[in-house]
Amino acid sequence: VSTQSTWELFYTSNMPIILQTALVSNLYFFSQILYKRFSSNVFVGLLGKWEEPEYASAAGTSIPVGGLAYYVSPPHSFYDVLGDPFHAMFYVTFVLSTCALFSKAWIEVSGSSARDVARQLKEQSLVLKGHRNIEASMVKELNRYIPTAAAFGGMCIGLLTVLADFLGAIGSGTGILLAVTIIQQYFEMFEKEYPGANMIRTVK
Hints:
Layout: H1 15-37, H2 42-47, E1 49-51, E2 63-66, H3 67-71, H4 78-83, H5 85-109, H6 114-123, H7 135-142, H8 146-166, H9 173-193
Antiparallel strand pairs: 1-2
């Protein structure tokens, strides 16, 4: 038995940006703690330099002004991009590369890798067109598409986040993206539970 199948652009959904945000948050956390205690240390300064701005809404609020923590923080507008283009380029490269890597890593631990998909197809008596019903053959063919789809989808997620940050969106690009993707997932779940409902269908 054979059937047609399509791959979603965002193969790993919003998971890459969630993992990327967790990575940056942990970097901020440890960098701030170390800088408060050892601000004169060169290596701590390379990890991140922090200061409390005059317009801080709450006491103790700090922002990164140097080191790695500064360069992985988003510019908040195009004025910031023009003021420090290296910061913007580093941030874009960091977000896109980490989202792509996290996306490829996530498919291996979430049961979405080529081997997992091939096993699921075999259990359902489905085969890829032009290939025998041999798991190794299907894994080889699926490996041509799934890792690429995961990495490209992760980069697209990262790019949407970067654009939202550069445009000065209210909140953050990551927060907006997570909200939208979560709402979309609930719509899809509702459509699966109630396929006859008159809902706005999302185009993939």
